[in-house]
Amino acid sequence: MEARIVTLPGDGVGVEVVAEGVKVLRAVADRYEHRFTFEEALIGGCAMDATGSPLPDETLEACRRADAVLLGAVGGPRWADPSAKVRPEQGLLGLRQGLDLYANLRPVCPDPALQDGSPLRPERLDGVDLVVVRELTGGIYFGPRQEATAQSQAAYDTMVYTAGEVRRVAHVAFRLAGERQGKVTSVDKANVLAASRLWRRVVSDVAAEYPDVALEHTLVDAAAMHLLRRPADFDVILTANMFGDILTDEASMLAGSMGLLPSASLGEGRVGVYEPIHGSAPDIAGQGIANPLAAILSVALLLRHSLALEHEAQAVERAVKTVLAQGHRTPDIAPPGTQTVDTKRMGKLVVMAIMNDQ
After folding, report:
1. What is the pLDDT of residues 44-94, one digit of tens each?
2. Which of 96, 163, 190, 347 is the most exposed place for a label (fewest CB within 10 A)?
3. Which of the residues 57, 126, 205, 221 is marked catalytic?
4. CATH placement of domain 1-104+259-358
5. What is the pLDDT of residues 27-49, one digit of tens each?
6. Is 221 labeled as catalytic in the residue annotation?
7. Following DSSP, what letter does each residue of 96-159 receive, concatenated?
8. Selected catalytic residue, list 100, 129, 157, 249
């Protein structure tokens, strides 16, 4: 197979982890006789420094022409003024809107080799295998807003959803659940928010089209509690943009580190954006100690969802499990006092496992 992949390293550790993701993609191409070509483009703070825009037109056009996009992270102290009119995060929002990527998939399946790294007791993690499907282009991040100024006494952000926006992301969640354990937990705040009451009604309508998938509705505050009390009860969690943003950061602690969790942002077409859920981590950027496994597992999602290479995706996931089972750890997942490997070494170990995969 031939595929064109755009890489958007972005800022901070994004540059370091994307480099390891590309090495893994090259290994997959060599091992399974594919031809992947790569084009690097700017996004986030580095794009602002170079062009004045967090998402240059050239970047968006390159992504539209690509088969898939591998992204690192955006932001950092240099661009941290929350009152600034132009911010690195606008690059991500613009990319999602520009490619109409409305469904964000974030799988959470703690590796048994790392159960001691989670703040939860190991028995709480037994059987945990869930996916959060987060609506990505609507809700409070995109609704009407009024910015605060030095003189203003009020500011607002508005949660707006249409039935069509809810319906299309709900179909993603129900189709996914049909391939998994057959259960969707829809998370909202319908006891307070009008937008959530619309959300609940539309999700219930969609559920009628999937008689083999069970649906339950849960309020977001209860869902946050249950993710820690009984995480193994979840299969597919469907939720709105902001709720999903918060809950997936919480869910990352089930795995022990944000450095372990990948994500896929998908729409109707083939192209998707694949990125680790962690941020740019400016406190460790440039030190070579960032965990590349979330970016590498994002490569597996890229192979699966955009390139339809399921066997290769599973090979990458097996390679990560193999490396962890061998005891290799970056500092974020290493017990105190144990030996660690750096970012490049971890990437190399995964590449070696792929090349030796049977």
Report:
1. 999 999 999 999 999 999 999 999 999 999 999 999 887 788 999 999 999
2. 163
3. 221
4. 3.40.718.10
5. 999 999 999 999 999 999 999 99
6. yes
7. HHHTT--EEEEEE---GGGGGGSSS-HHHHTT--EEEEEE-SSGGGTS-EE---SS-S--EE--
8. 249
Query: Pick the catalytic residue: 189, 210, 235, 274?
Result: 189
Q: Is 161 a catalytic residue?
A: no
**Tokens standing for residue 295:** 């970016």
For 119-146+155-255, CATH gives 3.40.718.10
23 catalytic, yes or no?
no
3-state secondary structure 236-273: EEEECHHHHHHHHHHHHHHHCCHHHCEEEEECCCCCCE
Q: Which of 102, 141, 161, 210 is catalytic?
A: 141
Length of the chain: 358
Q: Which two tokens mark 142?
A: 């995109």
Query: Which residue among 11, 235, 245, 332 is the active-site one?
Result: 245
Helix axes 293-305, 14-32, angle to 10 degrees: 50
Structure tokens at 83: 């009152």
Q: Which residues contact 283 (CB under 8 A, 6 or more apart)?
A: none
Summarised one tens digit per residue, pLDDT across range 276-315 is 999 999 999 999 999 999 999 999 999 999 999 999 999 9
344 is catalytic: no
Amino acid (1-letter code) at residue 40: E
Confidence label for 354 from pLDDT (cuts 50, 70 and 90): very high
